[in-house]
């Protein structure tokens, strides 16, 4: 009987010396399973290995091959199905069970279960965070009305001092200081950690008499004079450091000859 033949094959497989004859066919295995009429169940691979829906060992056994045959005729299902298809294609067929059995008893065969699944990975769009450069007042330096720093005089000295202490910055014109009123000026300290209380109001649109000009002649360099005898001075504005609030613009020149005084030059970006 066919049943007795399978039992004989199983015993031979357990014995390390025998192999199934090459004439064993998928049809004979299928007929055995149909005679068994086993209800449909599921077989799960212990390690997801090819042709091992049942066993835990290094390779498939006769029990695995019988489970594959039952899958082929619909009385059992493999999960995933691909582990029961060592010939490399789906659906599972009786020839998969035969290939498994030949491997189990020592024949040189290769098992190729089609379990390589193409996965699609959805990568969320990258978010680029751009940090806007700080604009407005970023620091302050104390200079006399005759601005002298970094071996330069006048506005070139203010430019050099700001660039040295606050890279990428320039001296603030009065309009830039006004635009920074509020949080940017609150608690502002200079490079020596002194609290800033007033700014020179640098404004190229004002007369040299209000910008500590070397002379009153047109084209004379501003912020290069520090005596009082020609009646020039420097515009400035006071700062309430606690609130960042600016006061009223004070007009230099005339009676206010203050170019010898020291006030703060704002440095802006």
Brief account:
The chain has 269 residues and is of the alpha+beta class. Helix content is 24%, strand content 14%. A three-stranded antiparallel β-sheet has the order 3-10-6, with helices on one face. Strands 7-8-9 form a three-stranded antiparallel β-sheet.
Explain what the structure shows.
- With 269 residues, the chain is of the alpha+beta class.
- The protein has two domains: 103 residues, no CATH class; 132 residues.
- Helix content is 24%, strand content 14%.
- The chain contains six helices and ten strands, in the order ααβαβαβββαβαββββ.
- Helix 2 crosses helix 4.
What is the count of distinct domains? 2
The residue ranges in which pLDDT falls below 50 over 5 or more consecutive positions are 12-28, 30-40, 118-123
**What is the straight-line distance between the termini?**
97 Å
Task: Give helix % range.
Answer: 10-25%
Number of distinct helices: 6
What is the spatial order of strands in the main beta sheet? 3-10-6
Quantity of strands, as a count = 10
Whole-number mean pLDDT: 81
Largest sheet: 3 strands, antiparallel
Share in β-strands: 5-15%
Q: Helix/strand-derived class?
A: alpha+beta
Shape: rod-shaped
Order of helices and strands: HHEHEHEEEHEHEEEE
- Calculate Rg over CA atoms: 46 Å
């Amino acid at each position: 009987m066919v049943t007795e033949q399978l039992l004989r094959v199983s015993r031979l497989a357990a014995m390390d010396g025998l192999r199934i004859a090459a004439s064993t066919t998928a049809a004979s295995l299928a007929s055995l399973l149909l005679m068994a009429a086993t209800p449909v169940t599921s077989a799960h691979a212990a390690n997801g290995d090819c042709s091992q829906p049942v066993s835990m060992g290094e390779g498939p056994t006769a029990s695995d091959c019988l489970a594959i045959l039952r899958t082929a005729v619909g009385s059992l299902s493999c999960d995933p199905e691909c582990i029961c298809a060592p010939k490399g294609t789906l659906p599972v067929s009786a020839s998969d069970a035969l290939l498994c059995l030949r491997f189990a008893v020592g024949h040189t065969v290769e098992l190729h279960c089609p379990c390589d699944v193409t996965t699609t990975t959805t990568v969320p769009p990258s978010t680029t965070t751009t940090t806007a450069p700080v604009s407005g007042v970023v620091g302050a330096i104390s200079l006399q009305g005759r601005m002298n720093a970094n071996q330069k005089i006048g506005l070139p000295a203010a430019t050099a001092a700001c660039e040295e202490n606050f890279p990428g910055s320039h001296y603030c014109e009065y309009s830039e200081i006004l635009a920074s009123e509020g949080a940017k000026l609150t608690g502002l300290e200079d490079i020596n950690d002194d609290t800033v209380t007033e700014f020179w109001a640098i404004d190229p649109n004002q007369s040299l008499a209000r910008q500590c000009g070397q002379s009153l002649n047109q084209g004379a360099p501003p912020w290069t004079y520090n005596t009082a005898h020609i009646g020039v001075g420097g515009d400035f504005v006071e700062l309430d450091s606690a609130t960042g609030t600016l006061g009223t613009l004070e007009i230099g020149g005339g009676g206010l000859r203050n170019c010898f005084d020291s006030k703060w030059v704002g440095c802006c970006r």
